[in-house]
Amino acid sequence: MERYLNILKDYLANPNSDFAILITGKWGCGKTYLWKNVFAKYLKEKTNKKPVYISLFGVKDTDEIAAKIVGQLFLGSKKYLTSGTVIGQGFLARAGFKSACQAFLDSGIKDFRNHVICFDDLERIESPLTIKSVLGYI
């Protein structure tokens, strides 16, 4: 695990990087465990960075991704808002936003240097969304 933690430390040491870390491996090998129990723990305890976990399981469009980001950044919720839920739509409507994407854009957050976002379950997105479009979006 120390080897992987050193990769994260190197990544964090370069605040102007224009790349991301991709964790690959077979299903069940511990990728999510590595994030939640090693990386997120390190970020919370040893840095000023906020770990943000976003599962892409079942996501059908980029608006749902934005809703999950908004839910994590503003609500800190373990239960994410999604544009497809009545709760998510009601919250956004009461807040005066047409969509989660609009809420995200209007939030004014342009600087993510204090956040490290993990997008998990990329292979579990739903059609019509494609992996290529998700990677382009994030």
Structure, described:
The chain is 47% helix and 9% strand. It is mainly alpha-helical and 138 residues long. It has one domain. Helix 3 packs across helix 5. The chain is globular, with a radius of gyration of 15 Å.
Gross morphology: globular
> In whole angstroms, how far apart are the ends?
26 Å
The biggest sheet amounts to: 2 strands, parallel
Number of helices: 6
Spell the H/E element sequence.
HHEHHHEH
Q: By helix and strand content, what is the structural category?
A: mainly alpha
Rg measurement, Å: 15 Å
Strand portion:
5-15%
Number of domains: 1
Strands across the major sheet, in which order?
A: 1-2
Helical coverage, percent range: 40-55%
**Strand tally:** 2
Mean pLDDT: 81
Low-confidence stretches: 77-87
Keywords, separated by commas or semicolons:
138 residues, mainly alpha, two-stranded parallel ribbon, globular
Which helices and strands appear, and what pairs or packs with what?
Layout: H1 2-13, H2 31-46, E1 50-55, H3 62-75, H4 86-94, H5 100-106, E2 115-120, H6 131-137
Parallel strand pairs: 1-2
Helix pairs in contact: 3-5
